[in-house]
Design brief:
The protein has 309 residues and is of the alpha/beta class. It is built from seven helices and 20 strands. Bound molecules: zinc ion (ZN).
């Protein structure tokens, strides 16, 4: 009669239209089941958020079993409680879209003591996320310029990602200036790829590789492509290179092992996306579409992790 596993991860309606909101005098499970069993409901209604009369922040989540009739209204064959009053957090957040799983997961993370988030979100739509278990992705990027382009792009993509399972991002942002500081003396000057990098270090003469500086500094700060360009311009490697390629930083940190799924970028990748195990790479100048593809590659279809009703 009921097909849904109430313990499945990330149970979330594909459309908020499956959810109806009702005002009830009691949230006791027996009362709720008795109230909604046999009660007429709109044909699309599969879930009911039952809110307590007089204290509507108190709520419970029910699932209705339907007889498959496509009449506009028909009685629910059965009803069961998916999350009790004590398990539900009712939250209003106009910044969250109930159709975007990552938005739901973001709000749910603020209420970890509740296994069911009932969200009244943007457009006043009401929906829920049960057993939130977002896919965790670490974005590894290098600054400056700040803020991290990749982290910003990931946020923009997830902001409208209705077709992706809930994803929770943590950022690992490496400041290339700290790599320089670790490298010690820069008496001979520093070459950085371009002015856009916005790197200034007190007491150090900084030149920009894209301006083809005539005086070759001793230290090159850059990714693999900058090293190639240096060889093209000057016929030789820089006397010293500080390689900031996130790909290399990742390797130095022991690869993606132990850190779960990682998304990063590399200047040696011109277009498209690459996936190796738990790691996906996009080009240094990635498009939003490439970032979206990489997130899809990492998260998969969410099979087994995302229970779309
Ligand atoms: Zn690289």
């Amino acid at each position: 009669m009921f097909e849904l596993d109430p313990g499945a991860p990330n149970v979330m309606p594909a459309r908020y239209g499956q959810v109806s909101v009702a005002s009830v005098p009691s949230l006791s499970p027996d009362d709720l089941v008795a109230r909604f069993t046999g009660r007429e409901a709109y044909f699309r209604t599969r879930f009911v958020v039952a809110r307590l009369d007089g204290d509507p922040e108190q709520c419970a989540l029910l699932e209705l079993a339907r007889d498959g009739s496509d009449d506009l209204f028909s009685p629910a064959v059965a009803a069961r409680v998916l999350a009790s009053a004590g398990e539900c957090a009712y939250v209003r957040d106009d910044s969250a879209d109930t159709g975007v799983p990552s938005h739901m997961a973001r709000v749910a993370a603020l209420h970890p003591e509740h296994r069911c988030l009932v969200l009244e979100g943007r457009y006043r739509h009401v929906s829920f996320l049960l057993n939130a278990a977002p896919i965790r992705v670490t974005v590894l990027d290098v600054v400056p310029p700040e803020p991290s382009k990749l982290a910003d792009q990931v946020a923009r993509v997830l902001d409208s990602a209705e077709d992706m399972p809930p994803i929770a991002v943590s950022e690992r942002i490496v400041d290339s200036r700290s790599l320089v500081a670790e490298a010690g003396s820069l008496a001979e000057g520093l070459i950085v790829p371009c002015r856009g990098g916005d790197i200034e270090i007190e007491g150090v003469e900084v030149s920009h590789l894209d301006e083809r500086p005539s005086s070759v500094g001793s230290t090159l700060l850059g990714c693999g492509r900058s090293q190639q360009i240096h060889r093209w311009f000057y016929g030789t490697d820089a006397a010293r290179t500080i390689d900031w390629c996130p790909r290399r930083l990742m390797d130095a940190a022991g690869g993606a092992a132990g850190s779960g799924l990682v998304l990063s970028r590399c200047c040696m990748l011109e277009e498209g996306t690459e996936r190796h195990g738990d790691t996906a790479m996009v080009p240094w100048g990635a498009t939003l579409e490439e970032v979206r593809t990489a997130l899809h590659l990492l998260a998969g279809t969410g099979d087994g992790a995302w229970t779309r009703t």
